[in-house]
Amino acid sequence: MNGQLPECWGHRGASAEFPENTFASFEAAIAEGSDCIESDVHTTSDDRILMFHDVSLERTTDGSGIIAELPWEDCISKVRTLKAPHQPIPLFEQALDLLMRPDAKHIKFNVDIKPSNEPERLFELMARLVKKIPNWETDLAPRLILGLWHPSFILPAKRHLPTATLIHITASLSVADEYFFPHVTGFSVAFPLLLTSTGQRFLDKAKQEGKSVGVWTVNRVDEMCVASKLGCQWILTDRPAIWRGVRDRLGQDFESTYSKEVPSSFWYSTPTYYLVAHKLLNYYARKKIIRFAGPLVRIPSPA
Description:
GO terms for molecular function: phosphoric diester hydrolase activity. Pfam families: GDPD. By secondary structure, the chain is of the alpha/beta class. The protein has a single domain, classed as TIM Barrel. It contains 11 helices and 9 strands.
């Protein structure tokens, strides 16, 4: 294989082992050799930014309610994860402080911007906190990667955080192609979408236009090997230690490792690899982001 192997991006930290989107998970991802930590953001009613995936608290914590309707002070600040070790929900500024520790200054930070957020408000709050970090322009900004789902977030992101890298997170290659190509440097794509001829054409176009492509969420060794062979730039995984180990093996002997881990039946082994599943994924992905953030809008290409 020619070229570098994909980077290791810890999905919500090392979330297979630790409560997702917590310091325990983030610190484990760093210790396990991640190149990047991925996390999600939501704003509270009192303008605090939480590192949290869901719109509401119930699935992963002992709290309840919609985050946007609840304050941090004397409410969400007391919530703990259901999964042990029981952790508080981190704030965005606390995550930035973690990234500035000596052992984490090489770590990139991929912030998944959920489409339920109000973009102007969120990015203004984020920018205010980023600019409080000493030497943020050189020590933090180059590591900040904003993952956008909806095109209405593009211009507010560029306005408030112009130095951040923008990527599009997608479960729909048609949305990526129609609305994001001129505006982002890369794409974080649901892994199965790249396994068809449509996915290969998308990869070829991205390569021709100098765009990076990574995949989410990949926890199986065979899928890690296939993503590497496809030429992806990063693999988003709940299991950073597993991917680091596989990556080391691929680096030592790519072909023999690939042959050992990827059976000839791989391409037919999982329902989500089939085109009909991709059509359903595209339909529901479009429906979901429109439900949260409104109709899809084409942003004029940069001059």
